[in-house]
């Protein structure tokens, strides 16, 4: 898949004249330049006595949860619809969502992981009317949002609200001490950096447990960067390949430079290790920087000045292969109040709610609608820039095939994550691990 370019942005609504007039590559148009104010909102009659229950992932930055709850309260004030928001742990969000889908009761709205909605499209409310309205008003949806949001029939079964990018969070002073001015842009020198950091007593550390965000993000990058993929364009499983074996061989060399214990790390683990000064570099969202800036501990607060962010290096494929943890908003058909639910979804995507939520999250969630690239959050601090275009640039889990039950199930089963961990722990050779991953994936991708 080619990266989504500035030319593509022009096609979906960002004014070419505005960009050309800026005269610089880093220019981000203000929201007013790309927002179409005259687009009529869908006419939805909210059901009498409507109440809504929303299930979403627990916050990794406090501002995310605080502002989301404030937006929900604002919706109640504006419409009279009571909204209960439940914040679920990252590990428990997927199984609780699946239970609600299978028994036909529970939350009305779920902010689910990645392509989870693709596992039960027949149980979801059609959101096409709302999605098309938002797309027209806010400069168009990025292609990755359409891929994750649309079902096999082309209708919107969900709407991605944002994605947390897995940039390389690092201590710049320790990178410099290891002989590098910045994080290398190629995998060969990235390995040399890892080796030097370990020699200096400042090792890297990436999650290798079943971590929804950090584990999936970096292990998929590893495979994709070497030309491997779970499936081809026809959804044929191809993970057992020379490219995957090469990726695993490189991954073993890289992980040998890590701090001990990463095999059991989940999403909070690398945050804690980084802020404790135990590691120099990790794959994470912007939450580490956020925690340091706002820490009551003077030593950790001072660390923020030395924290920088960089993209993952480019591997043998010669192009970026970034991944991200995407949150996908869906409405279950079992809701008694579908119009109220759709109206709530529309409400949280609107500028008045979305921009403050993105700002409160200090850029933890990258946007799916082109207009929000003009949010000042991306320019007020240069260290936010690495996360600004996550949804414009990221590949999808299930790459290079289509999304559906199989792609969602293989991700939920942590097949790639486990394959990498097997090799890096020494429990299997690259060829053995790739062969096992092939068999596991074929159980879902039945032909």
Which helices and strands, and how do they pair?
Elements: H1 6-11, H2 16-22, H3 31-34, E1 51-57, H4 62-79, E2 82-88, H5 90-103, E3 109-113, H6 128-137, H7 143-149, E4 159-165, E5 167-171, H8 172-177, H9 187-199, H10 214-225, H11 242-255, H12 267-275, E6 281-284, H13 287-293, H14 298-303, E7 307-310, E8 324-331, H15 338-349, H16 351-360, H17 390-393, H18 405-412, H19 415-424, H20 430-442
Parallel strand pairs: 1-2, 1-3
Antiparallel strand pairs: 3-8, 4-8, 5-6, 5-7
Helix pairs in contact: 4-16, 10-11, 11-19, 19-20
Q: What do these coordinates show?
A:
- By secondary structure, the chain is α/β, with parallel strands linked by helices.
- Helix content is 43%, strand content 11%.
- It has 20 helices and eight strands.
- It has helices spanning 6-11, 16-22, 31-34, 62-79, 90-103, 128-137, 143-149, 172-177, 187-199, 214-225, 242-255, 267-275, 287-293, 298-303, 338-349, 351-360, 390-393, 405-412, 415-424, 430-442; strands at residues 51-57, 82-88, 109-113, 159-165, 167-171, 281-284, 307-310, 324-331.
- The strands form two sheets. Strands 2-1-3-8-4 form a five-stranded mixed sheet, sandwiched between helices.
- The radius of gyration is 21 Å and the shape is globular.
- It starts with 5 loop residues before the first helix and ends in a 5-residue tail after the last helix.
- Pfam families: SBP_bac_8.
């Amino acid at each position: 898949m080619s990266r989504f370019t500035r030319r593509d942005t022009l096609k979906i609504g960002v004014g070419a004249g505005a960009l050309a007039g800026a005269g610089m590559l880093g220019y981000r148009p203000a929201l007013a330049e790309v927002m179409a104010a005259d687009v009529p909102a869908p006419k939805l009659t909210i059901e009498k006595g409507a109440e809504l229950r929303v299930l979403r992932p627990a916050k990794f930055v406090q501002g995310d949860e605080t502002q989301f709850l404030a937006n929900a309260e604002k919706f109640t004030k504006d419409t009279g619809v009571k909204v209960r928001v439940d914040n679920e742990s990252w590990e428990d969000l997927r199984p609780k969502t699946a239970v609600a889908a299978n028994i036909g009761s529970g939350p009305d709205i779920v902010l689910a992981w990645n392509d989870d909605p693709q596992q039960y499209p027949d149980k979801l409310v059609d959101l096409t009317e709302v999605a098309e309205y938002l797309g027209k008003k806010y400069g168009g949806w990025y292609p990755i949002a359409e891929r994750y949001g649309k079902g096999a029939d082309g209708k919107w079964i969900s709407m991605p609200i944002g994605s947390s990018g897995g940039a390389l969070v690092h201590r710049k002073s320790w990178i410099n001490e290891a002989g590098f001015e910045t994080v290398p842009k190629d995998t060969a020198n990235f390995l040399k950096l890892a080796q030097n950091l370990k020699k200096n007593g400042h090792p890297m550390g990436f999650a290798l447990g079943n971590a929804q965000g950090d584990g999936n993000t970096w292990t998929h990058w590893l495979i994709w960067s070497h030309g491997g993929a779970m499936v081809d364009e026809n959804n044929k499983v191809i993970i057992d390949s020379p490219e995957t074996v090469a990726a695993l061989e490189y991954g073993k060399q890289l992980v040998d430079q890590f701090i001990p214990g990463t095999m059991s790390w989940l999403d909070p683990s690398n945050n804690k290790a980084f802020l404790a000064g135990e590691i120099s570099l990790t794959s994470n969202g912007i939450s580490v920087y956020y925690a340091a800036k706002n820490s009551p501990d003077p030593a950790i607060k001072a660390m923020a000045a030395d924290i920088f962010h960089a993209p993952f290096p480019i591997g043998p494929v010669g192009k970026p292969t970034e991944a991200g943890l995407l949150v996908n908003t869906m409405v279950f058909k079992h809701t008694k109040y579908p119009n109220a639910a759709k109206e709530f979804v529309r409400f949280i995507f609107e500028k008045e709610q979305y921009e403050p939520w993105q700002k409160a999250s200090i850029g933890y969630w990258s946007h799916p609608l082109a207009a929000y690239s003009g949010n000042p959050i991306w320019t007020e601090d240069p260290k936010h820039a690495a996360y600004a275009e996550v949804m414009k640039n990221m590949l999808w889990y299930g790459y290079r095939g289509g999304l559906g039950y199989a792609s969602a199930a293989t991700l939920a089963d942590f097949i790639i994550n486990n394959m990498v961990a097997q090799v890096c722990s020494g429990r299997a050779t690259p060829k053995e691990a790739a062969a096992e991953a092939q068999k596991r994936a074929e159980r879902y991708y039945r032909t």
